[in-house]
Design a protein that fits this description.
By secondary structure, this protein is mainly beta. It contains two helices and eight strands, in the order H-H-E-E-E-E-E-E-E-E.
């Protein structure tokens, strides 16, 4: 039976460690929030301080989203993880999130231009519990792409290995470009 978790219930569950509100690239139901470290956005220029990026031209979301990003995921106003994402010009993307490796922390997807300011992606990853495959997730996300930032909303569905939906959680993403 499909269980839908409301945003308020997801945030409450996150607080008690039962079910997280965002899949990221790992099964957040098994993530230890105290083990996650956050990279403050002010540190992003320090990842490669020798290069500055000129702002991309406005109004071309498909061209502007290509590159490397640091994204912060939230649900109910609470941070749930950060990831490095690369968006590629062949309309694929991959992500590495700051969640425990044994739960899975790499995922992939594809994306398309919605209009001159927005892109949409479909994202998928395997979920593990202490290294054992236990399910998968899908995430749909629509982002408004600006000069070296993007933000948007997403919807994550967590499935067991039989394809039954275990949870569905809305969230947000905010990203800053990482200089090459």
């Amino acid at each position: 039976m499909k269980h839908t978790i409301t945003l308020a219930a997801a945030v409450a569950a996150l607080a008690v460690g039962a079910v997280s509100a965002h899949a990221g690239c790992a099964d957040p139901r098994n993530a230890d929030a105290t083990a996650m470290h956050t990279i403050p956005s002010f540190m992003v220029p320090h990842l490669n301080p020798n290069i500055s990026l000129p702002p991309p031209p406005p109004g071309n979301a498909a061209r502007n989203v290509i590159g490397s990003w640091l994204v912060t995921y939230t649900a109910g106003g609470n941070p749930l993880g950060q990831a490095f994402i690369q968006w590629h010009d062949d309309r694929t993307e991959w992500e590495n999130i700051n969640m425990p490796i044994l739960n899975g922390n790499i995922c992939v997807g594809s994306w398309k231009e919605v209009d001159s300011l927005h892109v949409s992606r479909f994202h998928v990853g395997w979920l593990y519990t202490n290294g054992a495959l236990t399910g998968y997730f899908t995430e749909t996300e629509t982002d408004k792409v600006g000069a070296n930032v993007y933000s948007g909303i997403n919807d994550t569905k967590i499935f067991d290995l039989s394809g039954h939906v275990l949870a569905e959680v809305p969230g947000t993403a905010h990203a800053v470009r990482i200089a090459p």
